[in-house]
Amino acid sequence: MVRTRLTAQERHAQIVRAAVTAFAQGGYAGTTTDQVARIAEVSQPYVIRLFGTKQELFLATLRHAGGRVGQIWRDAAVADPTLAGLGAAYKTLLDERDLLVVLLHGFAAASDPGLGDAVRDCYGELFLLVQVLTSCSAEEARDFFAHGMLITVLGAMRVLGPEAVPPTQWMIDLLGTLPYRQ
């Protein structure tokens, strides 16, 4: 078997993708750099050499997740620069469920002094991006985010998305109220 040598940038991206998987499964506190290394099929010292600390790895993962959400919304806005257009993009976000779960873990870990500013910046940048892409008011963006957080939580619980569990009555009732669901 011939192995292709990855560039430093490709290896960095490979480790961040592995970190998305690992942090989505275990959260910030429950994930080790060794778990990330195993998923990425590299050594744990290599992960530390690239990122320095687990905290820096998590921050890179959080920035990646936030950047991917932003890119999905930018792409959606090309076809439909409305809140409904961005809301329809949640199907893509639910298909990439681990990104949303990583963001949820980031929000939960925001009380950590080393993470809080970055988590708040990520959320704020996404909030402002929605306003720029759709020309909506702060109140409209707030409502979009409120519904989006509900969809994110439902996706994390596998109520929505490609791996959704069979719905119970409360799920059917709640899902019928969502304005941005396909």
From TrEMBL:
On whether RNA-binding is a keyword of this UniProt record, the answer is no
UniProt feature coiled coil, ranges: none
Extract the PROSITE patterns matched here: HTH_TETR_2
Q: Which residues cross the membrane?
A: none
Keyword Transcription belongs to the record = yes
User: DNA binding happens at which residues?
Assistant: 32-51
Record's keyword terms, sorted: DNA-binding, Transcription, Transcription regulation
In terms of superkingdom, the source organism counts as: Bacteria
Renumbered to this chain, the signal peptide range is none
What InterPro entries would the database entry show? Homeodomain-like_sf, HTH-type_TetR-like_transc_reg, HTH_TetR
Q: What is this protein called?
A: Regulatory protein, tetR family
Q: Which organism is it from?
A: Actinoplanes derwentensis
